[in-house]
Structures are given as structure tokens and as C-alpha cells.
């Protein structure tokens, strides 16, 4: 059966220690144009969050109002800020998981 056309030649048989080629793990980067007005709105709200975080307890409402505006906007403004999901935005910007947000 080794010489049948359906079997690869002995030097091409897979075995332990042989590497099997794999597909790339990351897709190529995709560039998406960003609407300037959405980016400006995101930047304004993000600046409010950063300023309020500096005063933490006094500006707790300001932090969450701005975060809510970013997440609830249609389309969501966190995408413009480079985040793929709301949980990713909450985690990286506010240090909170989405359940606490």
C-alpha cells in the first residue's frame, strides 16, 4: 500500500517532530475612515472622563455620564476611540468590568 498513488512518498509522510504549516493567526489590519465629528465628540467626552477621574469622588457622576454618552451613542463612540467593545472600553478607560458599569 505504500507505493499506491493515494499515499505520499515515504520522505513526505507526516510524523512526530515534523512541522505542519499553519495559517496566520492575525488577519491583516483593516483601515476604516473615521468621521471627524464623531472623533471630536469622543475626544471631548474622553477628556471629561480623564478630568473627572483626577477629582475621583467629587466627579463620579461626570465620569459615568460621559462614559454612558460614549457607549449609548449611535454608533457607539468607543469604536472611534479604538475599542472594539463596550466591556473593553470600560476595562481600559475606567478600570471597571461591564457588570459594574
What does this structure look like?
41% of the residues lie in helices and 0% in strands. The protein is elongated. The protein has 101 residues and is mainly alpha-helical. It has helices at residues 36-54, 60-72, 86-94. The protein is built from 3 helices and no strands.
Give a quick set of tags describing it.
101 residues; mainly alpha; 3 helices; 41% helix
- Tell me the helix content: 40-55%
Largest sheet: none
- What is the overall silhouette? elongated
Compute the CA-based radius of gyration: 25 Å
What is the overall pLDDT average?
79
Structural class: mainly alpha
N-to-C series of helices and strands: HHH
Segments where pLDDT lies below 50 for 5+ residues? Answer: none
Through-space gap between termini: 64 Å
What are the SSEs and their pairings?
Blueprint: H1 36-54, H2 60-72, H3 86-94
Helix pairs in contact: 1-2
Give a nutshell description of this structure.
The chain is mainly alpha-helical. Helices cover 41% and strands 0% of the residues. It contains 3 helices and no strands.
Amino acid at each position: 500500500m505504500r507505493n499506491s498513488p493515494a499515499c505520499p512518498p515515504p520522505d513526505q509522510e507526516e510524523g512526530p517532530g515534523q512541522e505542519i504549516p499553519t495559517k496566520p493567526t492575525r488577519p491583516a489590519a483593516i483601515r476604516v475612515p473615521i468621521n471627524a465629528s464623531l472623533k471630536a465628540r469622543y475626544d471631548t467626552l474622553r477628556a471629561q472622563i480623564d478630568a473627572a477621574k483626577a477629582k475621583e469622588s467629587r466627579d463620579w457622576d461626570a465620569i459615568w455620564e460621559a462614559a454612558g454618552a460614549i457607549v449609548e451613542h449611535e454608533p457607539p463612540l468607543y469604536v472611534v476611540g479604538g475599542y472594539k467593545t463596550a466591556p473593553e472600553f470600560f476595562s481600559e478607560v475606567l478600570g471597571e468590568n461591564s457588570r459594574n458599569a
